[in-house]
Design a protein that fits this description.
single chain, mainly alpha, Arc Repressor Mutant, subunit A, about 5% strand
Length: about 150
């Protein structure tokens, strides 16, 4: 399960991806639009800024905007940044590997073999799905049926 912080980070990035390019969004605008507590959003945007995904601008026309293109930001990248390793078992983590304390050998572990497939499939989806994909998918889901038929 992903954390609420990761969910908010993804929603904030989606909001920025849907905004007009070169028009920063204010924190209060994102918070209101996405129903995210403003103080929590400030922390999240700071983390995203440090990672190089967003930038902030000061002044009257200030706010946040994407620094990386929405099609270059993957769900996996965001989840790993916010929540840490993406693995159901410590022995399957690519970034924080740790041997399981009760394991006699990874090559013999039936549980590890099953969850390795789960982890691989999960990473495949997360690291091949971008913020742009999610925004586009949401737009298609919200489009009237006649628009989908004529597309």
């Amino acid at each position: 399960m992903i954390s609420q912080k990761a969910k908010y980070a993804l929603r904030a990035l989606a909001a920025l991806a849907q905004a007009r390019p070169e028009e920063p969004m204010m924190i209060s605008e994102i918070a209101l639009q996405q129903s995210i507590p403003k103080k929590f959003l400030e922390q999240i945007l700071l983390d995203l800024k440090r990672s190089g995904m967003v930038e902030s601008r000061r002044g009257k026309q200030g706010g946040y905007l994407l620094l990386k293109a929405a099609n270059d930001i993957t769900f996996g990248e965001v989840l790993r940044l916010v929540d840490g390793p993406i693995a159901p078992l410590p022995c399957l983590s690519q970034t924080a590997y740790r041997k399981c304390e009760d394991c006699d050998g990874e090559h013999l572990c039936e549980i590890r073999h099953v969850f390795a497939r789960v982890a691989d499939a999960t990473r495949d989806v997360l690291f091949n799905t971008t913020i742009a994909d999610a925004v586009e998918g949401a737009a298609v889901a919200k489009a009237p049926v006649r628009e989908l038929l004529t597309a």
